[in-house]
């Protein structure tokens, strides 16, 4: 395997740190840009990774990219919170659109640059109910966050049309895994509440569905995407729908906790059903998701048990 230079923006985040765990098993050189706004460097603890703490919108980031001259960029750094994107639309656009453009334009100046892999999202489809959604399905973003991802895809496509800029935009379904507490998706939220014997809240009937994909499958997909020869957009998903009620039941069973959820009115703007076809990405890479929701949740339990054991061992040390 020829040694290449990988730059991961947002490498200290939830998905980025999983990508790094996979990449450090390879001989490639690894570089990270992260401003640590939501990411945490202590997750990584690997000397082989060169971390530049800076903002993707900064001149420092441009200079770093020029110096590193990466072959591949996996661009994950973003403002990822949908409510924040609604409350602070300019900030969201600044980080997600202008920040991405900053990184993209810097990559265009790198000689021998091979591919830009962009973390897009199912949020670009918004409330499109023509399930399962494929890459040709109409984009109908319902939030500034979804809009920003859609805009970035268009900038990438435009640059490919203008001068063959090689890219691949992956539209992730709902990613779950061992997230830090501050970053709650529905699975982390239910898990945390139930583990503390508290009843989680289900908004609406709970019959609304999502396509849940385990973070390890996403990390693998991001690395495989560098070898896709045809620029374009690809869904990365399980192609399975699970209702919020089923998620609640699965986690309750795994933790062996019997509690009724608190039921509240549906939230405005919530997508009702979501499911993404992963056919195109499978055909392009041979990738298959390793985990279905049940096995992903079991793996999550294993990771969390190890963490607890580790924390208990450390707190047993008498000074
Ligand atoms: N987690 C999901 O369910 C999901 C779904 C679809 C798409 N995505 C996309 O995947 C990517 C990674 O998401 P995540 O869940 O790991 O989020 P995360 O918040 O855990 O990671 C984002 C990382 O980017 C860094 N960052 C943020 N703004 C920055 C800036 N201006 N300059 C430099 N670094 C900055 C943060 O410190 C963090 O380490 C994002 O682009 C997100 O939009 C995530």
TrEMBL record:
Transmembrane segments: none annotated. Residues 7-236 form the NAD-dependent epimerase/dehydratase domain. It holds the Pfam family Epimerase. Belongs to the NAD(P)-dependent epimerase/dehydratase family. This is NAD-dependent epimerase/dehydratase domain-containing protein. The lineage of its organism: Bacteria, Bacillati, Bacillota, Bacilli, Bacillales.
